[in-house]
Amino acid sequence: MNLLWTPEALVDAMEGRPIGSLPEGISGISIDSRSLEPGDAFFAIKGETMDGHDFATAAVKAGAAVLVVAEGKLPSLGRLTAPMIVVQDVLAALEKLGVAARARSKARILAVTGSVGKTTTKEALRHVLSAVGKVHASALSFNNHWGVPVTLARMPQDCDYAVFEIGMNHPGEIRPLAKMVRPHVAIVTLIAAAHLGFFKSLDEIAKAKAEIFEGLEPGGVAVLNRDDPRWKLLAKSAKEAGVEHVLGFGENARSTFRLTNCELHADHSDITARIGKQDVTARVGAPGRHIVQNVLAVLGAAQLVGADLEKAAAALAHLSAERGRGRRHILRHPEGRITLIDESFNANPASMAAAMALLNATPVSGEGRRIAVLGDMLELGGHSAKLHAALAELIIGSGTRTVFLGGPEMRALAEILPSDIETEYRAGTEDLKPVLLSALRPGDVVMVKSSKGIGFSKLVDALLGKFPAEATTIEPT
């Protein structure tokens, strides 16, 4: 067993009260009995809809080494005889453990936020830094008030680098998380109209993202998108937070991490960049100009934490992607092949533009078509109808002439697309599924893009079910 925590350290960090015979060590941290591994400590967190204490028995059956439970919930656990650490508040105890993990770590710590590209940039950092050392990074999109403490608590004491993703829906959410993580390098990818329903303007979103600077370690570095219109606002916020080193990435001539040449291809990009005082040439195994932009931040951050830049750049050729973030599948149609681009995890106006650019750059074969399957962008509030209708600009005049739309908000787009764009609109995902499945033909390139809550991942599953994939290529966005 890989020892993550001794029971003594666990109890001390959380100021807990042990019950029963604690194990010799803890190998992992879990808040979900379904994914728990034997040897994990199970934290019975109470969420908005579920209470982890209700799954304590399931956690024990799954092999939990110890349960972390709330004092007030002990009576409801009845005759459960598993080893326990009793605390006043389980989430607060997890936060304390995360802070203790950070305090004992000698790793170089990086944190990523932004409206789009957070997870991709985090995964790219994980990938390139793994070429030069032991890396710990957030799982999936563990970027909120419980995901960040979990990631901290899981951080091995001997890792060389740790990468954290920090997200938010409302002002004030990033600040406490950044102060827990205390990064040496903080990256802001891009400010865009995500979660605009909770903010009055993009400037407000930028100010909320700028809370990450308040957690930077003394002497830490803010790495900002020099091509972002909110660059000045972010740089000013960083300085006001006491950050001495504010560096930019992008094509802007004043960028510290500057793109000097870029050749975009359907399945990769070839770039040359000036990273500090070093020229770097790299093949980026994932296509798309938006990927290139974030790679500049990745290379810059790698240099800042002392990684071997040549090894980091070489690793870019083999980037991997999570499901729903640009993964490509080659599907077997009875009469040929179909290319599927899975972008079903998230959507906002900026990521829609990037995904459409990727679709339009992907070649079709034979009589194939480029097909955009677009679902609602959520959390846009009163701006929603206008921003959905504005997507027409991405389609009109592009190489995409066939569009499938789903969700109530997409009606605004369906109503204004011209007649020369073949358009199918349905109010829901299930209604759209049979129409899409019956319409595809060999040579098509189909891109599925929506906010996660719309459930367009079911369309991806349906396509994979009807047309089994013969190959999958990894292309993150």
Strand and helix map with partners:
Elements: H1 7-14, E1 17-19, E2 28-30, E3 40-43, H2 56-61, E4 66-70, E5 84-87, H3 90-104, E6 108-113, H4 118-129, E7 135-137, H5 147-153, E8 161-165, H6 174-181, E9 185-188, H7 202-209, E10 221-225, H8 231-240, E11 245-250, E12 257-264, E13 269-275, E14 278-284, H9 289-304, H10 309-315, E15 327-333, E16 336-343, H11 349-360, E17 370-375, H12 384-389, H13 392-395, E18 402-406, H14 411-414, E19 422-426, H15 429-439, E20 445-449, H16 457-466, E21 469-473
Parallel strand pairs: 2-3, 3-4, 4-5, 6-8, 6-9, 7-8, 9-10, 10-11, 11-12, 16-20, 17-18, 17-20, 18-19
Antiparallel strand pairs: 1-5, 12-13, 13-14, 15-16, 15-21
Helix pairs in contact: 3-5, 4-9, 15-16
Q: Describe it for me?
A:
This protein has 477 residues and is of the alpha/beta class. The chain folds into 3 domains: 7-87, MurE/MurF, N-terminal domain (Udp-n-acetylmuramoylalanyl-d-glutamate--2,6- Diaminopimelate Ligase, Chain: A, domain 1, 3-Layer(aba) Sandwich), CATH 3.40.1390; 105-318, Mur-like, catalytic domain (UDP-N-acetylmuramoyl-L-alanine:D-glutamate ligase, 3-Layer(aba) Sandwich), CATH 3.40.1190; 327-473, Mur ligase, C-terminal domain (Protein-Tyrosine Phosphatase, Chain A, Alpha-Beta Complex). It has 16 helices and 21 strands. The protein has helices spanning 7-14, 56-61, 90-104, 118-129, 147-153, 174-181, 202-209, 231-240, 289-304, 309-315, 349-360, 384-389, 392-395, 411-414, 429-439, 457-466; strands at residues 17-19, 28-30, 40-43, 66-70, 84-87, 108-113, 135-137, 161-165, 185-188, 221-225, 245-250, 257-264, 269-275, 278-284, 327-333, 336-343, 370-375, 402-406, 422-426, 445-449, 469-473. Helix 15 (429-439) runs parallel beside helix 16 (457-466).
